[in-house]
Amino acid sequence: MGFFTDTSVCIGCKACEVACKEWNAIPEDGMELTGMSYDNTVGLGASTWRHVAFIEQRKPVSVGPDTDVLGISPQGAVTPGREEGELRWLMASDVCKHCTHAACLDVCPTGSLFRTEFGTVVVQEDICNGCGYCIPACPYGVIDQRKGDGRAWKCTLCYDRIGDGLEPACAKACPTDSIQYGPLDELRERAAARVETLHDAGVQEARLYGADPGDGVGGAGAFFLLLDEPEVYGLPPDPVVTTRDLPSMWRHAAVAAAGLLGATALACLTGRRR
Amino acid sequence: MVPKAEFTSYYGKPVLNPPVWKPLDIAGYFFLGGLAGASSALAAGASWTGRPVLARNAEVAAVGALGLSMAALIHDLGRPARFVNMLRVAKPTSPMSVGSWLLAAYGPMAGATALSTLTGRLPRLGRATGTAAAALGSAVTTYTAVLIADTAVPAWHEAHRELPFLFAGSAAAAAAGLGLLTAPSAETRPARVLALTGTAAELTATALIRRRLGMVAAPYRTGRPGRLLHTAEALTLAATATALLAPRNRPLNALAGAALLTASALTRFGVFHAGLASARDPKYTVQPQRERLEARRRGAVVPGPGSAGGAAEVGQEAVGGGGVERR
Lengths: 274, 327
Ligand code: SF4
Ligand code: SF4
Known about the structure:
The complex is a heterodimer of chains A (274) and B (327).
Chain A: E1 2-6, H1 15-24, E2 50-58, E3 87-95, H2 103-107, E4 113-115, E5 121-123, H3 134-137, E6 144-145, E7 152-153, H4 159-162, H5 169-173, E8 179-182, H6 184-200, E9 207-209, E10 222-226, H7 246-270
Parallel strand pairs in A: 1-10
Antiparallel strand pairs in A: 1-8, 2-3, 4-5, 6-7, 9-10
Chain B: H1 23-48, H2 52-77, H3 81-84, H4 95-119, H5 123-149, H6 154-157, H7 163-182, H8 189-212, H9 218-221, H10 223-245, H11 250-280, H12 282-297, H13 311-320
Bound molecules: iron/sulfur cluster (2 copies).
């Protein structure tokens, strides 16, 4: 099971952020005004499991006399005949990707992070010892340490709700169905169809992110429809699970350790007293 | 100068959540663990080749450094009881899990060896545990390199081939430094030779990192981590040269020893901060990935993520209790 977040219909209402906080009883995470458009949440963290990004940008949008202006509205406001394009707003609700090959889970030394029967990745807070290893391991900057608590926290894809057959709080609260919850293959089909619709309407920039099971994390359990490059939204363009290179790392470490043993032995032998 | 490639980010915010490890605890642990492990290796060699004082000092140093490094680790976890959770499972996909078991095996061996030497009891057993401590200790010096390389932190992950050699070299130089500092001139010859090989390995690995990593190597060259590493390199070189040129000069040897220890610590802090710097600036995450993506789009043969699997799958089975399919 997973999420499909269609950012082309996101209206930036932050209902998902609020619903997530409420349902999961997550503590307050700062009340600063950042000046980053309407985003005062900044990014995902220990006490932020849904984050709505706001991007203000000016993009050249080519418009001809026959353009279906409503159809390309996700590209931003356009005035027919104007080359440079006007200010457009991109909004996107980000979340833990519940990676198929999840680095956080791989490196967790306590087994606190585990894969559920729904294919999602969840932290067991009674086992987490606060070692912090999962934090730099996540290629998306999702999981983080809660200050004063020391343990790691992130989205559980509402493990408690989906176990009871309910949909996650964020998906339930989303008024535009930007966040959709369901079986991944179904969601992928629906997402592909949506991209096609957008392309037909002239929104060439529409693309899926994290939907390909052949990608560096084996496909994300939460994937997105984006209207610009991933890095514009603060997402890594081509993330790879770090443990893919682990066998090579262990090999190099073994050779280096053997080298150290050999070097000390040699040092003692060459300098042998007669 | 490399031309500034075009790059976008979300308000300049980092893509990654940077490590929350405290530099003093974790870089300090890398230094002390390396010193301990390489000292055990040097002690075994010294004891086999009839250099009792060097052997004894290195054995005691190993135990001391190990004790301090454990204190640093536990301080970083916040609560001593939390360390116990490390030994809940054994996970080959988690270098931290592997390391915890390694330390659990290495500690008693190093302790028993030092105890046997100091009390003069059970010398045969002492030799056996000394050999075991040498082997396990060598692994302790390099697993920490895997520990940091196995993250999404660009400056660490991209250097995953060189870091084990850098750490082994730095650990060797530190152990050699301690030998030079504490052993009588008659017994310091191995320490001098080890200082030379350690320094050579360390400098070569650093040079390779700077060459091979492209733009991701910048933190190893510039800023605070760059300064730390450059200082460490100069200090190591000067100390090794001093020790080799004045082999009989006790005060100069001791000075060189202290310098080698300092340099090894600086190296670990340099590598640690290079990682932090690369995690905090989104360009180190975005730019290499963007280039990889473009290269793949152009159809060039780039090892793509399509070959993902292997280690990752093992880990998930180890924990999930057998491959759980997504429903
Ligand atoms: S996005 Fe990060 S925290 Fe979420 S499953 Fe993947 S690696 Fe783990
Ligand atoms: S902080 Fe907790 S969840 Fe993260 S790796 Fe350590 S024990 Fe596992």
